[in-house]
Amino acid sequence: MKNCRLWMMRLKTLLELVAIIHKVIKELLKNMLILCGTHGTSVSRAEKIKNEGFRLFPGRRGTGTYFWRKGEYSRLLSVAWWDQCCKRGIYGNDKHQKCAVIYAEFHIRNEEYCDISTFEVKERIAKIIESKQIDKKNPKKLAALYDYAIALFEKKNNVRLKVVESLVSVPKSKICDRYPLIALGYPHCYAVRVPDCITIKFCEENAQ
Question: Which of 58, 72, 104, 181 is the least buried, fewest Cβ under 10 Å from its Cβ?
Fold first, then answer.
């Protein structure tokens, strides 16, 4: 009888512990955000990315690794980006220059994401551009401006932004003739500022 009561007490303690763990996991999941995107590059570079991970570069909306937000036309935009880079000779020294599309997920907390395509944010950035007299046609200076604006946001809110969403123009490629710009407007992209949050789900090689 004594052993039975002891066993029941241990079982009760175990059930209470399971309930606490379940509650903690539920709270963590509630605060988690999973975003999906595609990245167009050459097959050679895709292989390197799979082995070594993504690297950060200055881009149109600050420093990061860029992905098209997952949607009906994200693959098309990825192939078009690859096509634009091909025409500029960016993949000239790559062994395998054909297109690869990387499909990825980004696992982050809600506060580590920011959408800078909203009207209010764009207005603030426009004011910074005017006040600092930044040449809007200079990609490096424009990237530095966005990095500066994001750094101000991070300092004010005491947070490290891992993913920034924005609107960008379509790649300069005839492939984008199939993108319904009038209906959809400029496409959405993600600038991933912390590569550790990227999980590669699939890589489509020789995409056309």
Answer: 72
CB atoms within 10 A of CB 171: 22
The SS3 assignment for 72 reads: coil
Q: Is 187 left (phi over 0), alpha (psi -120 to 50) or beta?
A: beta
What pTM, to 2 d.p., does this model score? Answer: 0.81
Q: Is the pLDDT of residue 9 over 70?
A: no
Give helix 139-157 / helix 119-132 axis angle, nearest 10°.
Answer: 120
Phi, psi torsion values for 151, nearest 5 degrees? -60, -40
Give CA angle at 66 (63, 28), nearest 5°: 90
Domain 33-205: give its CATH code. 3.90.228
Q: Which residues pair with 102 in a beta bridge?
A: 39, 203
The mean pLDDT value of the chain amounts to 86
